[in-house]
Write a structure and sequence with these properties.
Layout lengths: L8 H27 L13 H47 L12 H20 L5 H8 L1 H7 L5 H18 L5 H26 L4 H26 L3 H22 L12 H15 L3 E2 L4 E2 L22
Helix pairs in contact: 1-8, 1-9, 2-3, 2-7, 2-8, 2-9, 2-10, 3-4, 3-6, 3-10, 4-5, 6-7, 8-9
């Protein structure tokens, strides 16, 4: 996702240059045919350029609003995930009576927090149709990854595993009914967030929302030089390409933000957000080594260093 305050044109140019180049060649042909070879019939002076542009803008605005609503809902869901993660970690770390004197055993409360950290990374991979098993191996180990490899929906499997660990804690007297209910409500919130993200991922905008504006933009860009050539002459290509770029850029951007989980420059910043959740939760477990810039216990130096998801050229994927 773009994290700068401005949008560099070089990020849009690779997607639009081919269409603009073809239009430029056509615009130059029209201008030369009219001004140099005096083919006056090529002009469509009566073409209502301004009304057509206004009508096309309405279509683009309608589609852009629908696309932005999807993008904003996706961002809001991940914002809710950040808040729920912090609350759930506090519950894991403060509500479980998990006292152990065995230094070789990871406290159950910390195990649950690591499961939740893994859930956030697994959800990111799941929405981007990437394998999440490497994340599971990193945070929970090879044996857990092997157990979870049977799940097609790995985030759902992690939530189930967290529920099983909590049931074990309840059976061992670490958790009473009231605290069980409070934690279970947040696990349900996680499931609802995942389901809402999957709904956005698996339900694209209707095809007519994508096809009709694109068709109208192409038609307008091809007709535009014919309506301008009589007044502008050889300057027609400059004006036509500038106006065409405006509509093409709006068309491209509205199409991309309609799919907020597709790993594009307009994507929801799930990598950055999941990393933020990881750092926040590890800090709550007192596993932040601020001097060396590492997270995790001394035995977990394979965990990535803090800051490995800093924006690169203003972008985070």
């Amino acid at each position: 996702m773009i994290v700068r305050d401005r949008l560099p044109l070089k990020r849009i140019w690779p997607q639009a240059w081919k269409r603009l180049l073809i239009l430029l060649v056509f615009d130059c042909t029209v201008a030369a045919a009219y001004s140099i070879f005096h083919h006056k019939w090529i002009s469509l002076n009566g073409l209502p350029v301004a009304p057509l542009a206004s009508a096309l803008t309405i279509f683009l605005v309608f589609r852009t609003n629908a696309a932005y609503a999807r993008w904003w809902e996706a961002r809001s869901l991940w914002g809710q995930l950040v808040n729920t993660s912090r609350a759930l970690a506090v519950q894991f770390l403060t509500m479980l009576d998990d006292e152990t004197e065995d230094p070789r055993r990871t406290p159950l409360r910390n195990t649950l927090v690591l499961h939740h950290i893994t859930f956030t990374h697994a959800l990111r991979c799941h929405l981007r149709k990437q394998t999440a098993l490497p994340e599971v191996r990193t945070f929970l180990g090879e044996s857990v990854a092997r157990d979870l490899s049977v799940y097609k929906n790995l985030p759902a499997g992690l939530v189930l595993r967290m529920g099983s660990l909590l049931r074990q804690a309840r059976n061992e007297g670490m958790l009473d009914s009231f605290r069980w209910t409070a934690i279970n409500e947040n696990l349900t919130v996680l499931t609802n967030i995942q389901g809402a993200c999957e709904r956005i991922k698996n339900t694209p905008l209707p095809r007519q929302f994508d096809y009709l504006p694109r068709l109208l933009v192409n038609a307008f860009c091809w007709l535009l030089p014919l309506g301008l050539v009589e007044d502008l002459g050889l300057l027609t290509p400059i004006a036509s390409v500038l106006v065409s770029f405006t509509f093409i850029a709006a068309d491209l951007m509205s199409r991309e933000i309609s799919n907020p989980f597709e790993s594009t420059i307009h994507d929801t910043p799930m990598t950055s957000l999941s990393r933020t959740i990881e750092l926040n939760l590890r800090e709550q477990m007192d596993e932040i080594d601020r001097e060396r810039g590492w997270v995790g216990s001394p035995k977990q130096r394979r965990i990535r260093p803090i800051g490995d998801v800093m924006p690169v050229d203003g972008f985070v994927f």
